[in-house]
Prior knowledge:
By secondary structure, the chain is α+β, with helices and mostly antiparallel strands. The chain is about 25% helix and about 20% strand. It contains three helices and five strands; from the N terminus they run E-H-E-H-H-E-E-E. It has helices at about 10-15, 30-35, 40-45, and strands at about 1-5, 15-20, 60, 65, 75-80. The chain has a five-stranded mixed β-sheet with strand order 2-1-5-3-4. The longest helix has 9 residues, at about 30-35. The protein is globular. The model has no long low-confidence stretch (mean pLDDT about 95).
Amino acid sequence: MRWKLFADLAEAAGDRTTDVPVASDATVRDALDALLEDRDALGDRILDEDGELREHVNLLQNGSAASQSDAVSDGDELALFPPVSGG
C-alpha cells in the first residue's frame, strides 16, 4: 500500500512517500497501523490519546475522503495531510 504524506507529517515519518505491506482483506485502518508501526513520531502527531486519528488530520484514498473502515485494494494510494489554511 502506498502512502503519501504532506507537510510536517512527511517530516515526522521521515519520507514523503512510503510503501507498507497489508493483507488482501485490509482496511484503511490496517494500512494506517502498518504505516505507524515503526514511526512513533508520526503516530504522536496524528493519533489522540485513545489511539484514534485526530479530527484535524485529513485522510484520503485515491484522492477522495476516506473512512478508516474502508477496504483497500492493490494499487490504492492513501494520503495524510494536516489542515490547510490559505490567505
